[in-house]
Amino acid sequence: MRLKVLGSAAGGGFPQWNCGCVNCVRVRERNPSAESRTQTQVAITIGDGFWFLLNASPDLRQQILATPELAPIAGERGSPISGVVLTSADVDAVVGLLHLREFHPLRVYSTSGVRRILTETNSMFRALDRSNPPVQWCCLPLGKEVHLNGDSGLACTAVPLAGTYPDYVNEPLRGTLPPGEATIGLVVACHGKKVFFAPALPGETMTWKAQAATSDLALLDGTFWSNDELVAIRGGGKSAREMGHPPLSGGGGLLEELRWETRPRKVAIHINNTNPILDEDSAEHREMRDAGWEIARDGMEFVL
Amino acid sequence: MRLKVLGSAAGGGFPQWNCGCVNCVRVRERNPSAESRTQTQVAITIGDGFWFLLNASPDLRQQILATPELAPIAGERGSPISGVVLTSADVDAVVGLLHLREFHPLRVYSTSGVRRILTETNSMFRALDRSNPPVQWCCLPLGKEVHLNGDSGLACTAVPLAGTYPDYVNEPLRGTLPPGEATIGLVVACHGKKVFFAPALPGETMTWKAQAATSDLALLDGTFWSNDELVAIRGGGKSAREMGHPPLSGGGGLLEELRWETRPRKVAIHINNTNPILDEDSAEHREMRDAGWEIARDGMEFVL
Predict the structure, then answer these.
(1) Residues 6 or more apart in contact with residue A3 via CB below 8 angstroms
(2) In percent, how much of chain B has pLDDT > 90?
(3) Chain B interface disruption, residue of A6, A16, A18, most B CBs within 10 A
């Protein structure tokens, strides 16, 4: 398996278009201690020329163009991208599907709850039906291994992580959606190797810890460093945990929870612009590295 | 007035993510005769520090970051962008609104038909309601001058251009939308100067020709060179005119229609990846220049 990180920031990216915080200013000024990051996007292949996208970020067009492996063959219309797997209906996880509207047949995998949000209350995604055959929406059942495209060699399992559907989802649809399908993690397995991808970890520790601990590579929710990070900056609003993102630091944070796990290569991804680990000179960045974590960057690659 | 072209390509951009045509290959290979282009996006200001966006392209985050004038003040959360004016509900004209979801109050101007498509059948745009105050949807009446933000100094008039609502719009909404509001051109005026922006020209010649001829600057539909451009490549599908884009060349094409108009500075924008004018060495590119046209590029700037 080969996995490429095409984007590593949380919603809005780094810098955020309307943010003048210390981190965002640093990256705008091209300070070498801060690297710009597009919104979280992962691509995975077994090396047969076909790629699957994990989520579809709003920066997807830019991310595909920055990745020569994802270019079409000269003289042909087409793409090595043959499917997309979604972990939620969050704007930063799904909008990129609209970048893929140029008449290319695809399979889109998600829970039924996420699919219903996109197909029943967001007509714009019908633009994907123009391809021949139209984009195929495939259901990811919870906890059951599914072979992507039937025979791609990549087995994918949806790990239910609880959480809630995005705020934009309105009634009456909201009331009819299966509560356990709002946010999932993905276990992608091939030839005995296992990747766990979970850019949001809203649920109980035991579910995701078990998945992380038995994986070779875990790309995990690195959105916030501390629980009150956004509250402190905005003077109000939701805590990190209330937004479905346990912080990296502190009691019950990711660093503490995975302190004794040696097996997975641990990578923090989906990093918010406010997170101090984005400053490579910061104490928090050093603390992550000392705890054995890597901090995802755009273009990072893993071979398993 | 100062106007910046942040993006100049048609839907999908140049290159398109899944296209291996001669033009797209040329730009991927960094051939100097072909310059990459993001999807059509214009920003306009009277020089008071506030900017208005004409449409909201799917590449908007990347386009804002590439434009230092649109950066927030260091240390503050905010943006010089104070409003967006939409010409249609096409995916490539509106998806960028979702890039602007980070809690920033904005006014969005459109016809009532376009607003209803976004707010009634695409719940994702509710993400814009999180700002305080929430994004304000303002109605652009046809043919009537509206002062953007009430007192910005920019007067904007919606020019009805006929056309049809995008294919993704489904019933029953489609049947209830005002037929004349699907596609508009925008006249933006200040201190006696006039810009006409019309990235699609589906309607009768007389409407848009009159607007172009009385403008100082006209940014016009340069999507296709010839009427059968896409049909020839794809072996089927709609002609340029059937897609709401009269070709540049041939009888009734833009070059012929505006051949005797000397007043507006004529700029072709919303250029499709298949259009031969994108190759600066081509005969078609030369023909455009000889006819007095400019070909929009990302970063191009106009002062009136």
Answers:
(1) A42, A43, A44, A195, A217, A301, A302, A303, A304
(2) 87
(3) A18
pLDDT number for residue B203: 82
- What are φ and ψ of residue B129, in 5° steps? -80, -5
Question: Which positions 54-83 of A are in contact with B (Cβ < 8 Å)?
Answer: 58-62, 64-65, 70-79, 81
Residue A261 has pLDDT above 90, yes or no: no
Kindly give the residue spans of alpha helices, DSSP state H, lying in B29-66. Answer: 60-65
pLDDT at A194: 98
**Residues in contact with A229: Cβ distance below 8 Å, sequence separation at least 6, in sequence order:** A240, A247, A272, A274, A275
pTM over 0.95: yes
Alpha-carbon dihedral angle through residues B272, B174, B197, B11, given to the nearest 10 degrees: -20
Interface with chain B: mutation pick from A17, A50, A82, A135, highest number of B CBs within 10 Å: A17
Tell me the C-alpha distance between B113 and B176, whole Å.
9
| Nearest chain B Cα distance for residue A157, angstroms | 27
- Nearest Cα neighbor of B89 from B201, B202, B168 is B168
Q: Is the dihedral of CA B13, B19, B23, B28 positive or negative?
A: positive
Per-residue pLDDT at A130 exceeds 90: no
Percent of chain B's residues with pLDDT above 70: 100
pLDDT digits (tens, 9 = 90+) for A177-216: 999 999 999 999 999 999 999 999 998 878 899 999 999 9
Whether the ω angle into residue B172 lies within 30 degrees of 0, i.e. cis, is yes
- Taking CB atoms and an 8 Å cutoff, what residues of chain B touch A75? 20-21, 25
**Cβ pair B20:A73 closer than 8 A:** yes
Sign of the Cα pseudo-torsion (B289, B6, B106, B181, in order): positive
Question: What's residue A102's pLDDT?
Answer: 76
- Looking only at the bridges linking them, the beta strands covering B155-160 and B146-147 are antiparallel
